[in-house]
Amino acid sequence: MRIGEIAALVGVTTRAIRHYHHVGLLPEPERRPNGYRAYSVRDAVLLARVRRLTELGLSLDEVRDVLADDAGRDLADVLEELDADLARQEAEIGERRRRLAVLLAAEPRDTEPLSPALAALLAKTPHPASPAAAKDREHLTLLDAAGSGGQELYAALGPLAADPALLALYERLDALAEAPTDDPRIPALAAELVAAVPDEVFAAISAEGQVVAGFQEALLAEYAPAQAEVVRRVMEAFMRRSRG
């Protein structure tokens, strides 16, 4: 093989190959009478190993140490290792494509990089006109990105998210945007919001563990004072029930 052919086979540039020759990672092959380098299958295997190791984040010096440790191994062993590496990469690509398929199946508004479970949950729910409901969607997205969500929680939220009665409660929360913190509607709304949440949700919240310190304060700061009081009462009830 010529340098362009081995580069295309392994998926690197000819410039990279020349650099690997220069730093001693890839031995210079013999040249044909016409002056062109003639690369063998073993050269291709070695080059593929260099590429794989650099993609894993190893420096060229670290790659050199790994290759030195592998010196003298049979070509068949190296090929089997490369095949296993390709199989792992293939599985990873398959998983990424599965996640991408879930996102593509969702409506355009839900094309953030969500977990498949949360993407499936949000795809079932109508786009909320309620600002309070929209906030809850954003909070779920944040928890999902932070790894604080989970399949059990999203599955438990499924029936609740599609319940029209929940939207009515959100609209009542929206109506408190200009209200004082002693508004008489606050206790009843907080109690109804807590009562609307199935026990399975609290069990899932308990299984997911504690909320990150400071999150509650940051969340409450996003609401108007009367709304924040409702949310505070709901969160306190959540914590009590999830512990129980």
UniProtKB/TrEMBL annotation:
Where would I find the HTH merR-type domain in this sequence? 1-69
Looking up CDD domains in the UniProt record yields: HTH_MerR-like
Keyword tags: Coiled coil, DNA-binding
Q: Which residues form a coiled coil?
A: 72-99
InterPro entries referenced in this protein's UniProt entry, alphabetically: DNA-bd_dom_put_sf, MerR-type_HTH_dom, MerR_fam
Mention one GO molecular function: DNA-binding transcription factor activity
Which Pfam families did the record assign?
Answer: MerR_1 (PF13411)
Q: Which domain of life is it from?
A: Bacteria
Which Gene3D superfamilies did the record assign?
Answer: 1.10.1660.10
Name recorded for this polypeptide? MerR family transcriptional regulator
